[in-house]
């Protein structure tokens, strides 16, 4: 089985800094004194989201590159409209052997991967699991893609590539041309597009779900998450609708447990995305589902 509980050498930052994330004063008072002091120190050190993000990805040592030309702080709009004419044309398929040193390795695709964190979630995975797989980040905001690629180059990583693409449109053009097996697709905290009339702008549409299911290799996995219950339910309904080939992971592996509503209790990846860090700091629940193709 292509399990996602990846065996990273470093202990996952999410557990290293776990004490920073629950802000309830009543539970704080219940802690033993040394732990209270430690936790208070944690709070003063990292209770702002940007600091937490820095800590999560600290071992990438990317901070020195901030502010280098235009690759530091990039001005971006809150949301883009993926249905506008500039985003609906499928992108050109890259020469895979030019973007990955070994294009036959199993592939992970992260859809909507950048935000302001510059793809550090995927870069972290690529750095810590360098030989075992390739990582493709699909992102609709080109400026952010350029910054992420700059960092990939600076780190000298040859197993990760960020691409400007509207994943809803281009996943089907791109992924079947990749020479190796597709073993994992992640869609983590996608843009919510709250208004009902804007739901058609959400990245997860039936065509994307069908393409993911079709291209995933047997045993391949899909991981979804959102801190917005309505978005999580929407993604869940769409992937649950493919129960003919996708089984939820807790039905296959007793190590994965869910709450009463069927959401995973733990982060199965061991590293959090930037949006996940911000949301957890605000006390939000992260709704997670993980499927395996059978
Ligand atoms: C809320 S951010 C989440 C980023 C990251 N996954 C995280 O959890 O921190 C959503 C990202 O998806 C990108 N995005 C939105 N629609 C997209 C689409 N159709 N194709 C590719 N990327 C998209 C946005 O530009 C943004 O960077």
UniProtKB/TrEMBL annotation:
<keyword id="KW-0819">tRNA processing</keyword>
<dbReference type="GO" id="GO:0008176">
    <property type="term" value="F:tRNA (guanine(46)-N7)-methyltransferase activity"/>
</dbReference>
<protein>
    <recommendedName>
        <fullName>tRNA (guanine(46)-N(7))-methyltransferase</fullName>
        <ecNumber>2.1.1.33</ecNumber>
    </recommendedName>
</protein>
<dbReference type="Pfam" id="PF02390">
    <property type="entry name" value="Methyltransf_4"/>
</dbReference>
<dbReference type="GO" id="GO:0043527">
    <property type="term" value="C:tRNA methyltransferase complex"/>
</dbReference>
<keyword id="KW-0949">S-adenosyl-L-methionine</keyword>
<dbReference type="InterPro" id="IPR003358">
    <property type="entry name" value="tRNA_(Gua-N-7)_MeTrfase_Trmb"/>
</dbReference>
<dbReference type="InterPro" id="IPR029063">
    <property type="entry name" value="SAM-dependent_MTases_sf"/>
</dbReference>
<keyword id="KW-0808">Transferase</keyword>
<keyword id="KW-0489">Methyltransferase</keyword>
């Amino acid at each position: 089985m292509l399990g996602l509980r990846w065996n990273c050498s470093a202990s996952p930052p999410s557990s290293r800094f776990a004490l920073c994330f629950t802000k309830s004063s009543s539970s704080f008072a219940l802690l033993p004194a040394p732990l209270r002091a430690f936790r208070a120190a944690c709070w003063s050190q990292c209770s702002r989201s940007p600091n937490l993000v820095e800590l999560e990805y600290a071992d990438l040592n990317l901070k020195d590159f901030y502010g280098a030309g235009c690759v530091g702080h990039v001005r971006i709009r809150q949301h883009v409209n993926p249905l506008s004419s500039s985003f609906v044309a499928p992108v050109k398929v890259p020469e895979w052997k030019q973007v990955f040193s070994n294009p036959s390795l199993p592939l992970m695709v992260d859809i909507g991967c950048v935000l302001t964190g510059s793809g550090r979630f995927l870069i972290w995975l690529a750095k810590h699991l360098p030989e075992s797989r390739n990582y493709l980040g699909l992102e609709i905001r080109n400026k952010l893609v350029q910054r992420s690629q700059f960092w990939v180059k600076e780190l000298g990583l040859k197993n990760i590539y960020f691409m400007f693409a509207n994943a809803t449109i281009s996943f089907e053009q791109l992924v079947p041309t990749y020479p190796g097996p597709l073993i994992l697709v992640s869609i983590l905290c996608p843009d919510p597009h709250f208004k009902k009339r804007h739901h058609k702008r959400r990245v997860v549409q039936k065509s994307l779900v069908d393409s993911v299911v079709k291209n995933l290799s047997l045993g391949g996995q899909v991981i979804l998450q959102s801190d917005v219950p309505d978005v999580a339910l929407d993604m869940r309904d769409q992937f649950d609708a493919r129960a003919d080939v996708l089984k939820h992971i807790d039905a296959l592996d007793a190590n994965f447990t869910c709450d009463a509503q069927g959401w995973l209790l733990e982060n199965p990846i061991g590293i959090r995305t930037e949006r996940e860090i911000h949301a957890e700091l605000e006390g939000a629940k992260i709704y997670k589902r993980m499927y395996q193709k059978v």
